[in-house]
């Protein structure tokens, strides 16, 4: 066992109740996995649509977001002591991805991805605050 690693069901130090605003690890992991999938699907959609949607910039951020979401989900599922660091990075990249996807107004696939990225950023932000 790693020193300082707490189990997901352990109360916070001092015997207090868990933070009522904190998202359970498994819920945040599920949201990260859903966002990972959405980014992969959005990237495929962008390639199929072509033009500005297939530009290197949007393709790169979708790939980065999908990758960090998967890595963060895996870290959360094993309750890694590094999950707070990954959640912080995931939050930032998800916000950036959401901004880039939302710029394509009128594209339902990219707007869905933007909305999921925002939700994932919020969930990861809660994990950072509670870690």
What's the quick description here?
This protein has four helices and no strands. With 131 residues, it is mainly alpha-helical.
Structure, explained:
It is a single chain. With 131 residues, the chain is mostly helical. It is 69% helix and 0% strand. It has four helices and no strands. The chain has helices at residues 25-49, 56-77, 83-102, 108-130. Helix 1 (25-49) runs antiparallel to helix 2, helix 2 (56-77) runs antiparallel to helix 3 and helix 3 (83-102) packs antiparallel against helix 4 (108-130). The chain is elongated and about 40 Å long. It starts with 24 loop residues before the first helix and ends with a helix.
Order of helices and strands: HHHH
- Helical stretch tally: 4
The fraction of residues in strands falls at under 5%
Strand element count: 0
Helix/sheet category: mainly alpha
Helix content: 55-70%
Residue-averaged pLDDT: 86
Distance between the termini: 18 Å
- The shape is elongated
The low-confidence parts are 1-20
Q: Describe the largest sheet.
A: none
What is the subunit organization of this protein?
single chain
Radius of gyration: 16 Å
Write the layout of secondary structure elements.
Layout: H1 25-49, H2 56-77, H3 83-102, H4 108-130
Helix pairs in contact: 1-2, 1-4, 2-3, 3-4
Defining key terms:
single chain, mainly alpha, about 130 residues, about 0% strand
């Amino acid at each position: 066992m790693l020193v300082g690693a707490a189990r997901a069901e352990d109360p916070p130090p001092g015997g207090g109740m868990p933070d009522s605003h904190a998202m359970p690890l498994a819920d945040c992991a599920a949201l990260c996995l859903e966002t990972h999938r959405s980014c992969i699907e959005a990237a495929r959609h962008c390639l199929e649509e072509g033009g500005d949607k297939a530009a290197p910039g949007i393709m790169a951020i979708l790939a980065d977001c999908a990758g960090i979401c998967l890595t963060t989900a895996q870290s959360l599922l094993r309750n890694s002591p590094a999950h707070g660091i990954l959640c912080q990075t995931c939050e930032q990249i998800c916000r950036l991805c959401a901004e880039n996807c939302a710029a394509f107004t009128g594209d339902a696939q990219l707007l869905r991805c933007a909305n999921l990225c925002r939700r994932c950023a919020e969930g990861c932000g809660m994990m950072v605050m509670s870690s």
